[in-house]
Design brief:
Layout (H helix, E strand, L loop, with lengths): L26 E5 L3 H13 L3 E5 L2 H10 L4 E5 L7 H9 L9 E5 L4 H10 L3 E4 L4 H103 L4 H35 L1
Parallel strand pairs: 1-2, 1-3, 3-4, 4-5
Helix pairs in contact: 1-5, 5-6
């Protein structure tokens, strides 16, 4: 049973298309040194809705590719001069053509030739004689698959770029965090130094108050000692009065000694806390 012809890519759909311009047909280049095969493939692809040009050998094919890059390439494996394997290898080395879908056609049907074609960079492989209808279906499938691969490649490129952007933002954020952390550490150290100075100031203030109180109390005791000493000197003949004055003097001395002990205790505790 004969296969139906593939629907031409340029056929209009059932819906009115006046609102948008017609899409350009995919451009296919056929390179084959057999004029009959070249004509059959060109006619079959044209009927399938492709825009087709052809070349009789590899050199002519390169010239046409330089002037216009095809969307898909059909190339014969065995040709005079530059064969199909060399054509594919060269195209895969060029950035402008490294992703073009390439269909290799040949009369060879051995597995070695098939492996060689794919090693060179062919996308698919088709043996002769060529059925123009099947060729249309095969090229249509390759075009769709190539578009999907190109979209996937672009998506991968976008993802890689997004990842690089995220990495850059992450590094910038890390630097900001490090700077902020350094600022916080410096602020913490400044606060610690301020707190230390405040505690020292409070201790010095307490020491000043204590020293003032002790000096006042010492002055009181010295006044007592001096007063009773002079009274005793004035009443040397009054033994009882002299004894009373000496007792007061001894009491004042004991109280002064107590103040000295308190001062020594406070001083030791202050040195230990520092």
């Amino acid at each position: 049973m004969a296969l139906p012809k593939p629907t031409p890519i340029s056929d209009a759909s059932a819906q009115p298309q006046s609102a948008s311009p017609p899409r350009a047909r995919p451009f296919v280049l056929v390179i084959d040194d057999n004029p009959i095969d070249r004509l059959l493939m060109t006619e079959g692809l044209t009927q399938s809705g492709f825009e087709v040009e052809h070349a009789g050998d590899g050199a002519e094919g390169f010239d046409k590719i330089k002037s216009r890059t095809p969307d898909l390439l059909v190339v014969d494996a065995l040709m005079q001069g530059i064969d199909g394997f060399a054509v594919i290898t060269k195209l895969r080395d060029e950035p402008a053509t490294e992703h073009i879908p390439i269909l290799m056609v040949t009369g060879l049907d051995d597995t070695g030739s098939i492996e060689r074609a794919f090693d060179a960079g062919a996308t698919d492989f088709l043996t002769k004689p060529i059925n123009p209808t099947l060729l249309g279906y095969r090229v249509r499938y390759m075009m769709k698959s190539g578009q999907n691969k190109e979209e996937l490649r672009q998506a991968k490129g976008d993802a890689e770029q997004a990842f690089k952007t995220i990495e850059s933002l992450s590094r910038a954020l890390e630097e900001q965090v490090e700077d902020r952390t350094a600022q916080l550490v410096a602020t913490r150290d400044e606060l610690a130094e301020t707190e230390r100075q405040l505690r020292h100031s409070q201790k010095m203030e307490a020491l000043g108050q204590l020293a003032g109180g002790v000096a006042h109390e010492f002055n009181n005791q010295l006044t007592v000692i001096g007063g009773f000493g002079r009274a005793a000197l004035a009443k040397l003949e009054d033994h009882d009065r002299v004894r009373e004055c000496l007792e007061e003097i001894v009491g004042a001395a004991d109280r002064s000694s107590g103040l000295t002990s308190q001062m020594l205790t406070f001083s030791r505790s202050h040195v230990t806390s520092n």
